[in-house]
Amino acid sequence: MVSYSRCMNGRVILLAAFGFLFFTDIFSYSYAAPVYGTHMPEKNRWVWGIEGDFILDRNLDNEQGGVEIKKYFITGSYGLFKWLCFDGKIGVGDVEWHRTQTNADISYDTNFAGGYGFRIDCGKIEHLGIKGVIGFQHISVHPDAKNQEGHKHQVIIDEWQGSALISKDIGRFIPYLGLRYGTVDFIKWLDEQDRKRIHSEKFFGAVVGMDYWLNKKIRLNLEMDFLDGEELTIGMGYDF
User: Fold this and answer.
1) CA 37 to the chain's CA centroid
2) Count of alpha carbons within 13 Å of 16, Cβ hemisphere only?
3) Global pTM value
4) Is the pLDDT of residue 203 over 70?
5) Less packed terminus of the chain by CB within 10 Å, N or C?
6) Is 192 exposed, middle or buried (0-12, 13-18, 19+ CB in 10 A)?
7) What residue ranges do the domains of the chain occupy?
């Protein structure tokens, strides 16, 4: 069994800080954490990969319609300690704003997207193959502006995600499930003014996912998040 006694004090401090951010910001609808499975790189090692992340239809608050978001990333995770890793990603994304019935939908073309976060290993029961992980993740999408109906429409999407996950080793197959808190902030401008931030309608949901090891280095990932609008993530990682 892997021992974490040397880093226990640091872990307790980080867990307390995470808990403070998580529970206080639930009420301001801003922060949360990541949902990227329970596999983490070893200390001072990298995991690189590719990822497609698709929000199928997320309802917005105050009857502002819903959004569909497609994102494609190159991902990198670095093991800061045995129990803590940094997650980063860079790529592109586009946004479809499904407005209310009285307004035409707006499609924002592909442009920059990126994200960052961390995960904390909560420990593993070796003889059962059960592991727990929590974390934090922020993703931002900056699609191109759209000229429509004589106006310039601009938008930035801010996603804040949080989860507590548990996984089970079954040979090469590692299913996991957990709970998630997350919000999609829809920040829009009309003619470079009248800036408004609209939150998503719901914030809590369930997470179901799986890792499958093709060999000792290459891992496939599939994940679904069940919130107000379903989210699907497909990825592949390589351990260096």
Assistant:
1) 11
2) 6
3) 0.80
4) yes
5) N
6) exposed
7) 5-239
Rg, C-alpha atoms of the chain: 19
Q: Are 22 and 31 in contact (CB under 8 A)?
A: yes
Q: Which of 135, 138, 149, 141 is nearest to 178 (CA)?
A: 135
Q: What is the tens place of the pLDDT at every residue in 34-70?
A: 457 899 999 999 999 999 998 887 888 877 888 999 9
What letter does residue 26 receive in the DSSP assignment? G
pLDDT tens by residue, 1-27: 444 443 344 444 344 444 433 333 333
Q: C-alpha angle with apex 15: 219 to 176, nearest 5 degrees?
A: 30
Q: Provide the token pair at 111.
A: 């442009």
Helices (H) and strands (E) in the chain, counts: 1, 12
Residues 6+ apart with CB under 8 A from 177: 165, 166, 206, 207, 208, 209
Question: Which residues, in sequence order, are bridge partners of residue 53?
Answer: 71, 233
Q: Domain 5-239: which topology?
A: Porin (2.40.160)
Strand, helix or coil for residue 202: coil
Which position has the higher pLDDT, 98 or 230? 98
Tokens 């929590």 label which residue? 134
